[in-house]
Known about the structure:
The complex is a heterodimer. By secondary structure, chain A is α/β, with parallel strands linked by helices. Chain A contains 11 helices and 25 strands. Chain A has 3 domains: 2-106 and 238-305, FAD/NAD(P)-binding domain (3-Layer(bba) Sandwich), CATH 3.50.50; 120-235, 3-Layer(bba) Sandwich (FAD/NAD(P)-binding domain), CATH 3.50.50.60; 318-444, Enolase-like, domain 1, CATH 3.30.390.30. Chain A has a 5-stranded parallel sheet. In chain A, strands 9-16-10-11-12 form a 5-stranded parallel sheet, with helices on one face. In chain A, strands 21-22-25-24-23 form a 5-stranded antiparallel sheet. In chain A, β11 (165-169), α6 (181-193) and β12 (197-200) form a beta-alpha-beta unit. The two termini of chain A are 44 Å apart. Among the domains of chain B are: 27-118, no CATH class; 511-594, 2-Layer Sandwich (Alpha-Beta Plaits). Chain B has helices at 3-21, 40-53, 63-87, 95-98, 102-116, 120-123, 125-144, 170-191, 197-216, 235-253, 259-272, 279-301, 306-332, 353-360, 363-388, 391-394, 399-406, 419-449, 459-481, 483-486, 490-494, 497-508, 526-529, 537-543, 557-561, and strands at residues 27-29, 59-60, 117-118, 453-454, 457-458, 512-516, 567-571, 587-589, 592-594. The chains are: A alpha/beta, B mainly alpha.
Amino acid sequence: MEIVIIGNGISGISAARNIRKLSDHSITVISAETDHFFSRTALMYIYMGHMRFEDTKPYEDWFWKKNRISLKRGLVTDINFSSKQLKFNDGEQMNYDKLILATGSASNKFGWPGQDLEKVYGLYTYQDLEAIEKFSPGLKKAVIVGGGLIGIEMAEMFHSRHIPVTILVREPSYWNNVLPKEESAMINRHIIEHGIDLQLGTELKEIHDDGNGNANAVTTSKGEKIDCGYVGLTAGVHPNVAFLKNGALEINRGIVVNENLETNQSDVYAIGDCAELSDPKPGRRGVEAIWYTGRMMGETVAYNVCGKKVGYNPGIWFNSAKFLDIEYQVYGEVPARIPDYMNTVYWEHDDGKKSIRINYHKENLQVLGFNVMGVRYRHEVCEKWLAEKTSIETVLQHLGIANFDPEFYKEYDSEVVNIYNKQTGKKLKLKQKRGLSAVLNFLKN
Amino acid sequence: MNIIQKIGLSLFVVALAIFTLSLGLDSYELNQESLQVKTEYHKEAVIDAAKKMGLWETSIGNNFEYVGQLKEVFKSAKLSQDQIASDGIPNGVGEWDFKIGDWEIKDYVVNTVKASSVGIVSQNKGLFWWLTVGLAMFGGLLYILPKFNLIPGIKNNHIYHNSMTRGLKVNIRSVFLILTIIGTLIYGVAYMNMNFVWPAITLAIIGLIIYLVLFKNDEKEYSETKSASPNVTGWLGMISGIYLIIFYILLYWKAEYITSWILIADPVSERLSGNPASKWFLYGMLYTVIVLVMGIRMIAKYRHNQYQIIRTCSVMFFQTCFAFILPEIMIKFNQPYFDFKNIWPLNYTFFFDYNIKSLIANGNLGIFMLVWGIVLALIGVPVFTYFFGKRWYCSWVCGCGGLAETMGDPYRQLSDKSVRAWKYERYIIHGVLVFAVGMTITVLYTYFSGSSQVLFVNSNTVRQWYGFLIGSAFAGVVGTGFYPLMGNRTWCRFGCPLAAYLGLVQRFKSRFRITVNGSQCISCGNCSTYCEMGIDVRHYAQRGQDVVRSSCVGCGVCAAVCPRGVLRLENASEDVNTRTEQLRTIHISEGEVKLLS
């Protein structure tokens, strides 16, 4: 059987690897972006000189041949689902028995005047990185539109080269549609501490043309005109499905798939950023452009393609990121605005760069979510507590086993317990400090 | 870089220039005071020869010329003594008090050249210490200290943009490696007095390893991924590497050309032990100074990370006190030179007859040292490694590790992460371990039996070749000279027999591992890039498998550079035998969606 995968990102590659583990089918992975799979999340580190492009490839180049995964560089422009045929931009054609669409995302553009000028790029593809690298020498100023995870990465990139940078954030506080108020304020402070110009409650109105088709300034919703040699568009991403629209494939925001990741076309699957689940699990969204969901979808689709029906289930929500120097991890329900049924225990370090938040149910005290900044928590432990609907009081007394900070780091878990005691008048004590032995015993039971 | 840092860097460069140039500033004169020999017979013979050849009490400005003529003088003195001796040595005079041995000439030349120096350096040793070592320290600190003002956090910016730290193209790296191997073998033949046997055996073993890695497993296909830079070469790094390589060659085998440096170390040595400096004192002093200054840099860089701070303080402490000051103080009190933390088989001379004899001859303290060394190697190593992993030694105590973790930190990303490099690593390091153990067995056999012939090998030749090939060429020239070429742990990863021994314990019976945090890995590659031992940490992190590798020295940098909090170094006894079995990522299997296993 000929299995063709469009897209060599984490989703497509996970699918290819797992299909190879499960079967002897012929596998071809097509990409217009790069010859080999690389970690998209590490684009910023290449620009900053932490790594070379080669270092972002999780597998050595011989890996693909050895595992009989053919790689093809090319841009698919059209798919004929009835004849099961792909058409490339150079006219070449390719047949498939089963097709997996893993085309990823594209940067959002909201119809701003000047959004298609040169020197206006997102930060998603390898070509975006090449553009930012090309225009950086001599760059006096950059403006970034959008205060999400990519926006702050781009700001850090320019900052590493001492290029002054302004971030326009529509919301009144950084990423406050995701982060609770205190954590959002912490990141605001941290961005400003680094000397980055953070303009909150400010939107992009227009990108100006220098007369040669290059951006040379922006005007903000506050009427300010900022001269700049580069505009980063980082106001989110959307499924990269434009070339498939107006065809037989059912597309809403993304390619609509059922829980087996099948589209409305037979033998065609969609996974990763470009897929939209028609019936997402409770607490999860239809489109989730996240590294690990791509990886899990790739693994799930491999079973389905190989004839073993498995439903996609991403489990309990978690995520992580890094805002300049502050690491962030989240497990379970941590909404930006705490709903009525929920209570929260929030501890913040005096330095304003570390915090621990634990959400629980007001009535039954069941633990609902963890949000840590500048502190590391163990995925497995949090996962188990959440899955077993453990009481907040049990969690607090054993909080040490959740701690994943390096050895000799100070443990703040007892301070979190004290805050809970203060809020509730209880007298709980931390019983369990950090350490792997206790973790292994906890996970075994 | 701010203005203070620029000044600091400039001062460092000036100090390095003065240090280098100081080798050519003095002139040399052979006379009654500068001639350094042990017996009156030797002295007379050398004076006769020197007068005949016109070197006696003649001032020579050029170091190379002086050393060349001096060697001729010693050779001629040796020959004439041999000739006289063939007619009969004067009554009551020991043979080697009269004749001059080849092995003595090396020391005689170095000591005589050092004593012959006349001029600005030898008359102003203290001043030159300050102008070289002192100024370099001061400049270095000026460059480093402003880093404490930055916002704490991982700052690896521009490492791959910097000519000093971005490494070499893989083909240029290969040229360095091939030249080093050829140079070592050719010089090795001369070193072994034109005895081809051991260099030839070494060459054969190198060929065998290359065959096993490249051809046996069909691994000819090799991408530059994860190894040296594909298309850039850092010139500054290359120049630094060459400088270090030349430094080590001069230090080990041609110390007569660096006597001015040894002179500069005299004042410090005299304060510590009361003796003038030897080349080993010079080396120890520079080593310690570098570990201290670059240790401060390490602390500045990781000042948000308690583990790194404590670990760096530990290597600075052990280098300064245990490796440098304590042995010198013991000499001052007429005790044997002993580095309490240097463990066999890294300390390959520990079981040499002269060391055992000297320890036994020194009463209770000597016996204690002997027992200490044996207990540490045979019991301390496995026990500590069981509890903490090999990091307790390699990145907390060891001197080689100390230099790698301080001066070498800017080069840690240059280690080769390819599977092929891993294959080389396993053959070479375990080969060295076998060599070290075998060599020690022959040496001990000779010690107890008195016979230097063990089966078909001569224990003296074996140990001489081990000392040259592994002790000097590999550990020193390649070990440190290759920092900017192949990363800071080249010796520790490919060559150190103690690391191999510690690694076997760590791999098969230890509580230590690097835990992977569930499914948080985003495969970015920072961990692998900054692993100085060339472990592809990401391979384990992205599949959720705890990292248990014999080479891991537990430096903790992978955990420090991870942007998502995925890695943690830790110990537990619950699962010593099953550490690697669990996959902590969320994964899916037929019939069920299995969450964290």
